[in-house]
Amino acid sequence: MAHKTFFGKLFGWIGDIFHDAAEKLWNDLTPEEQASLKHGSGVVQIINTHLQEVPEVVVAAIQTQYPDLDIAQLEQALLNVCKALGIKAPSVNIHGAITAIQMWLQDKTDNKVWEWASSALAELITVAINPGTIFQKVSVLIEWVYEKFIKK
């Protein structure tokens, strides 16, 4: 879409710069960092898609979408995220963590708050899955990864 106004062109140019910078940063990541970003964003998207369903459905969807993701590692990451956010899981396993996160997200009735919560959750899961990931990279790339690889 061609921008016709000065501000339209300016914002389009700024958007192009961000996209190019994000893509360059993405290309500089290790394959493990790229995978953890996709997993973090994708897991949150799956949880949001199945917000009203039992955790077993969520786990099955995650395993289908990301067969390379170690479920034991994800379980520990989700439990760590719950602890970091002060969310009490009803049981100390992946099902309890997913239930707690579903309830936490359901409480976010304002769309902007829900978007922020989902983005923050994706960042936390990404770093929890791969603790070696530099948080600043995650913070810059999480929305770009969601738009490029997850949102369909």
How would you describe this structure to a colleague?
By secondary structure, this protein is an all-alpha fold. The chain has one domain (31-150). The protein has helices at residues 6-28, 31-49, 55-65, 71-85, 94-106, 111-129, 135-150. Helix 1 crosses helix 7 (135-150) and helix 3 (55-65) crosses helix 5 (94-106). The two termini are 20 Å apart. Mean pLDDT is 86; it is low at 6-18.
Mind telling me the C-alpha Rg? 17 Å
Number of strands: 0
Structural class: mainly alpha
Count of helix runs: 7
On the 0 to 100 scale, the average pLDDT is 86
Percent helix among the residues?
over 70%
- Give the overall shape: globular
| Number of individual domains | 1
Order of helices and strands: HHHHHHH
Q: Main beta sheet, described?
A: none
**Beta fraction:** under 5%
Distance between the termini: 20 Å
Q: Stretches where pLDDT falls below 50 for ≥5 residues?
A: 6-18
Write the layout of secondary structure elements.
Blueprint: H1 6-28, H2 31-49, H3 55-65, H4 71-85, H5 94-106, H6 111-129, H7 135-150
Features:
about 150 residues; mainly alpha; about 75% helix
Write a short abstract of this structure.
With 152 residues, the chain is an all-alpha fold. It has helices spanning 6-28, 31-49, 55-65, 71-85, 94-106, 111-129, 135-150.
